[in-house]
Amino acid sequence: MTILGMNRRNALIQRYNSREAIKGVNQKFRTKERLAAAGVPVPKTIALIQDEEELANLCFDELPDAFALKPDRGRRGEGVILVDGRTHDGWKQLSGKTLTHEMLTRHLHRILQGELSLDSTISDAALFEPLIRTHPAFARLVPVGLPDIRIICLRDVPLMAMTRLPTLESGGRANLHQGAVGAAIDFKNGQIFRAMLGDQEIEYHPSTDQLLVGECIPHWEDAVRAARRCSAALDLGYIGVDIVIDANEGAQVLECNAYPGLEIQNVNGAGLAARLDMVERRARLRQRRLQRRDQRQGQPLGQVLPALARKANLLAAQLREVWHTPVAHA
Amino acid sequence: MRFDEDLPGDIVMRRLARFAMAAAIACLIAIIWTLFDRSDTFVSRAVHYVFGDPARAWGLDNLYLLLALPLGAAMVVFVRSVLGLQTFGLFTPMLLALSYLQSGPIVGPTISTAAILVGMLAAPILRQLHLSRVAFLGALISIVVTALGAMAIHLEQSALISAFPVVVTALVVERWWNAWEANGPGKAIRMTVTTLIIALVIQMLVATPMLINLAANAPLAMPIGSVILMLLLGRYHGLRFSELARFRAAKGD
Questions:
Q1: pLDDT tens sequence across A203-212
Q2: How far apart are CA A194 and CA A186, in angstroms?
Q3: Choosing among A6, A9, A268, which should be mutated to test the B contact, i.e. which has the most B CBs within 10 A?
Q4: Cα–Cα distance between A286 and A281 in angstroms, integer?
Q5: A21 close to A234: Cβ distance less than 8 angstroms
Q6: Helix ranges restricted to H, B184-234
Q7: What is the DSSP string of A144-170?
Q8: Global pTM?
Q9: Which of A152, A149, A159 lies closest to A219, judged by CA?
Q10: Are the Cβ atoms of B249 and A196 closer than 8 angstroms?
Q11: Which of A5, A201, A270 lies at the smallest CB-CB distance from B253?
């Protein structure tokens, strides 16, 4: 069986992803810092508001004209506000509505109180980031919304990749279950070779009628390079990396997932299990080869054997002693 | 939902599912009718003919139920990791089955399902009142328990009023509400139906004469066997049965 099922995925995550590491990726700001330290391109931070005092000191005029506001521990894009351009009393949201200063303050209060977070019992921080503007070659494919790339890696080995393209039906969200298109990407050249809408194989995007199959992802090599560094940076052995392609900044890692879904296999028309097996087998072989080399170089057999013989003699002497000690019979 | 694009097979399946639901609810109503109104009508005669006396009990002793509990757990593990069906709560089906075994083969499922249905009808109404979550769940559970108690008093079924079935039913309603909030109504209803069916299957399995004999001769055989079975099932890393359909599109290579 070459398809990875839930059972094996859960076992894999148990083995490769520690509990602390899984918790770690829930905090966007910390995750970004760790990724950036490992040389992974991530969106800049305009401001981080951690408590009410910092919120009181926030100067609205210093905020840029376009930004994304996120809860630090948000879940699945909930509580995210995207604005592009100012109006006389605030900003223009991407959804078309106006965001006044008052609304922004109220939203920030809600984020700080943890109302929009994964665990709503504790307070959260609010994160301002520059608005991502998708690379024109990529943005051309979709009607609205932010298309992203998902690459699944085992340690630093990329296993499978797809891009999620929002449709009108998905309301601009890049979520396959809400009706976004999933398109499989070839690692060799960054070309889309298969596109799926639900369980239907398609060639053209349903909302824009653009030909998807054969389309190249811009900055593909940068995206793969970024994805390969995430595992070590976050200490997650099995990881799903979400990447966006910004028009100016290129590939940027937006989020890392410790429980990447399995739907990518349907999009690719291929299973993950065979690839996992291959990577694990190679890792085992490499490790064994290294061990053998270490033994040859570090500890010549001439040192190992006498040491072993000494240990055996010691043990034998102890045993003899125990054996010959008379037992007092009461 | 895109009904116009559905395949004929899907439409047939949906109709069959609806028909089965309607039949199950009709059975439920007929049994409840017979339980409450003990006069001799064609409904009660039909129920007696199909199910036997609906008010009868299993008559299993508590030690046997305790010994059978691991078997129920093993069944749940099997259903979740080999068949891949989704139930709510890890061992809710096992607890439900145990409550059925305590109160009777027909009366147990009927009464607890009826109580759960009462809870399901009450939940949307309660939600209109904008209560806090704890108060909401508390009120919901109280309503369900009250309905259960009322039915038990009317039926003079002491087995129903014993704490265990009541606790389990209340638990199911809470879990059901959690599933409703997390996954939406359609999935919650499907999970409820799966949970109830698995509970019924576990009930039937635990009450087979073969296992009762086994427990009489070798009391620890069943629990130890169940633990071994679960250890084996826990190492199963293959595909779940339901995933064969889910990954149909991935079978390209």
A1: 999 999 999 9
A2: 9
A3: A6
A4: 9
A5: yes
A6: 185-206, 209-217, 221-234
A7: SS--EEEEEEETTEEEEEEEEE--TTT
A8: 0.79
A9: A149
A10: yes
A11: A270
